[in-house]
Amino acid sequence: MEALLSLAFDNIASKDTQKIRKGLRQIEGMLAQICLSNGKSSKPSTPGHRRNASAINLGEQPPSSPKKLGALSEDLAFREFFRLQEGFEWNVATRVADCLERLLGMASNGQNDLLILSALSNLQGLLLLHPPSRTIFGREIYMNLVLDLLDPYNCPAIQSSAVLVLVTALLGTPQNTRTFENMDGLLTVTSLFKDDETTQGVKLKLLEFLYFYLMPESPVPAATGLQRSPSKLVNAFDRRSSTVHGDDTGCTSTKNIRTQEEKQHWLSKYLSNVEALVQDLQETAPFTSVTC
Questions:
Q1: How much is the pTM?
Q2: Rounded average pLDDT over 256-271
Q3: In the 8-state DSSP scheme, what is residue 67?
């Protein structure tokens, strides 16, 4: 897996759009092989078939069904992927975010927009597969990257994908939400929502984000390290690791937590009738299994 990641990292670090596309597809292929099953058996379907090779040649793979979360704990590729993400050298989310920053600095055209969409799709998957990687968005440089993608000049597809990445980056990480607030993230979101040029599809996703933002927060328990045993690996999804950004505290202090009333007050600075959103949220409970 290190060899595949090294090759993908070299490609997405290039200024050549063809190499960037290839690198993003290699990462996408690796994630697909981790998340998808080719059948009841995890054994190779053809002689000489190797996971790394199939990740590079994603287009040659037969249709697959998603694996259940419990099955991932027994998957050697997933265990290895999770282990590698603990260190900065092999953390894929950081590399893809850096690639995304370079893409934003390149000429704006249809081809570049497709690369940005591919990078955003990969980033969302990475943050879901390895929740501790979300801690990078506690840093202003990475949070600002997502907020830049919500500018009106970006196409609706990029705006919608950026909203999904933002939700994933804030999920279960109150410290990231504080960074988002401190960087005028609410102003960015509400300005785009109120813009007459914003499409209805993007406005719907922004409204869903506001519901998500208004969810009550709870402290994240401290984690002394990710569990390695198969029976406990899935539980690591609910833990936060600090190794990605070098913080050795491994926990979220309650001082980072804001009440729903406090967040309602913050949002009301930029949007009217927030009380109606809160009431609707309490009545419908659309995210009953989600903790912000």
A1: 0.78
A2: 91
A3: P
Show Cβ contacts of residue 78 under 8 Å, excluding neighbours closer than 6 positions. Answer: 34, 72, 129
Which amino acid, 36?
L
Rounded Cα distance between 263 and 283, Å, is 18
Tokens describing residue 211: 């519901």
Contacts 24+ apart (CB under 8 A), 44-48: none
Backbone angles phi, psi at 36, to 5 degrees: -105, 150
The C-alpha atoms of residue 182 and residue 191 are separated, in whole angstroms, by: 16
Angle at the Cα of 218 from the Cα atoms of 215 and 222, rounded to 5 degrees: 145
Q: Where are the domains of the chain?
A: 2-39+49-284
Query: What average pLDDT does the segment 108-118 reach?
Result: 93
- 193 close to 203: Cβ distance less than 8 angstroms: yes
Which residues fall within 8 angstroms of residue 61, CB to CB, at 6 or more apart? 29, 32, 33, 38, 54
Identify the CA nearest to 213 among candidates 190, 230, 231.
Answer: 190
Tokens of 191: 């300005």
